[in-house]
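Same chain as my last thread, 253 residues:
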Amino acid sequence: MMKNKLISIPVFLFYFLPISGHQNKDTTNENTGIVKISFVNTIKGKPVELNTARYINPFAEEYSVSKLKYYISHVSLAFNTGIIKEDESYHLVDESKADALSFSFAVKAGTYHSLSFMLGVDSLKNVSGAQTGALDPLNDMFWTWNSGYIMAKLEGSSPQSKVVNNKVEFHIGGFCGVDNVLKNISLNFPSALNIPEGKTGEIIVEADIDKWWQQPNDIKITEHPVCTTPGALAKKIADNYSKMFTIKKVITN
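reply #2:
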């Protein structure tokens, strides 16, 4: 019944939707600026140090981090009367590469109050064949066409791990059904972000990796040192790490 109602909406109404709904980043004939979004991965308030630093999780388990990657997609900024979306919005945040910790795109000059994005890669891209750029399988974030993309990856080691080489290995994926790990994230700014014409505004997002272990689910290395397939455990870990993002600050240059 609902489907029939939607089809019967007069065509001319759709011309008015962008005024109160979303707008793409195509800002032809508009004053534009640039927004830069930067990610700072931390543990207990300090930037992550790959391979060298040792950390203690909420269960007094020691661990190190050798790899940390996750997908950010469908990025949008909200203003008072709608949103602006980034076109073809897929980014792989990779702690091992300084240039993979931020990205920029053009937006309409104005004042923005929140950032939204998907944590992971949408189901369509998971089944659309070989991709390029951030979605290239050579980025080591793809299983098979059936299992799809690894949405987030955390690797390291721990004395509490009982597997070979004391490894800790979380490859979190699953894009459909009850084990879907895709997460929609929305973050309000602590103060409004004003992007004047020709200027760059920056949003600094902190990702607290300590959130992977707890709330709402207790993930102990002694019990679960490895998770490399979609399923109930991956879903629990994703429920945890979806809480790791906060806006650290916004900057207008």
